Protein 1
Amino acid sequence: MFFRITFALLIAAMAATVVAAPGGDQKDRDAQIKLALDELKNEVVVLERQVRDMQASMDRNSGQMNALINQIVDNVNAIRQAQSRVAEGSLSAITQANNLGEQLSATNQRIERLSGQMAELKRLVENLPKLPTMMQITPGNPDQLFAAAYGDYSRGNYDLAISEFRQYVETYPSSEMADNAQYWIGEALYAKKQLNEAITEFDKVIAIFPKGDKVPAARLKKGMALIDLGQPEAGRTELQNLIKLFPRSNEAQLARQQLGEK
């Protein structure tokens, strides 16, 4: 539960950072938030798998960790209750101001305790036995294979991730996530600066999965790769095609940013 709360807070914080960033209009910021959430949602699967594996390997520290998690949850609930009392109070303006000051002081103290508990929890987690890079994958389980591949991509194990994503596409070509797997092969190659190879893989997304939801993203990254390769005209053409074919997509908004359009 704690890790899911932390992950949700991370997503909210990233979204808030994008919204608060100067420049651009609201549509651009919305597009950036949507793309960030699309990429982060895959990490939920990986995170949940790691939590289950970690719980299975906990030793004598598990009791302390559970106690800390309960304390953190209690503090969060206490903060919410304090905020609710302040919002719902019907005292006079002076009394409300005094109570608000007391509530804020108590809240700050709880936050300080929460920070200390988070640091202690982090220490306990770091002392747990290290998990293997990839768990044994059950044959015939596409979710496990995709989660393992995306986990390796997230850790920077790009070669292993590419191999696993290729295995996914070859084994489950009709799966709903097959176009995603093909797209992430291109992303891994893009991260390795193998831009020509990345463009080839993005082209496969467009050709093999023309109705897949990753086609706009593949066109966007292909255009960016072409620009990075010193082919600005070809890159601009690809981005313009993206805007023409998917004018309402979030990727189209980002393409307009790349082209300097509004």
Note: The radius of gyration is 23 Å.
Protein 2
Amino acid sequence: MIHRRHALGLIAASVLPQRAFADSFEVRESLLRRFTDEGTSGAFAAFKSGENLIVVSDKTRTLGAILPASTFKIPNSIIALDTGVVADPDKDVFRWDGVTRSIPDWNKDHTLRSAIAVSAVPVYQEIARRIGAERMQKYVDAFDYGNRNIGGGIDRFWLTGDLRINPMQQIAFVDKLRRGVLPASKRAQELTRDILTVTKAGDSIIRAKTGLIGVDDRTAIDGVKASLGWLVGWAEKGGAQTVFALNLDIREPRHSASRMAIAQQCLRDIGAI
């Protein structure tokens, strides 16, 4: 086990907020076998809130910053609800733009709740345009989200633009949402927590959001394949809660579905579910 001094050094290196959120830190390289067993490679980071402990699979990839892809739908939802761009996640309707894409669930009208469930990129692009660059930058800065860079287009910066985030930064952000302490209204955070997809795992539940780098509104038309997948969220087992972030290389189509399976294996390995 690496104790507080070393943990703070690693957290600082990952450009997390200055105030560390864990007292101890462990590298468990045995977690990497969960990825290799599936014929891929990846990284897993978790914060066990009850033990004030961060557990990671390695000290390299967990600090590597990449595009957040559709995991950015989490902060985008909070911002939409906080600004009033979306007043009600179940009643405000975003009309389908009429463009037929290869993902059938995108080719229909959506509410915020249904859009995040199917990761409808065009809906969230419209939300980002309504929020606007000035307000978006203000919130991304206030959330201390990744490298805070929204260059590359207001409706593309998290897909193909300049925004980057690593697994350690993901768990720092998601933990704030879990606790409801982000600089946004309690209502916006509560509703965002509520619309996240829930998966049951034995006597535990997992609230999480996926992301695929290489899949956006354009590639959903021309069929370009994903190169990397995210899964971020938190697990609840009784009164214990564990925030986690996982990313992996999409070497085969099945690896997209492997994200939740690997996450559950890693969470079991660390006693979180």
Note: The chain has one domain: 4-269.
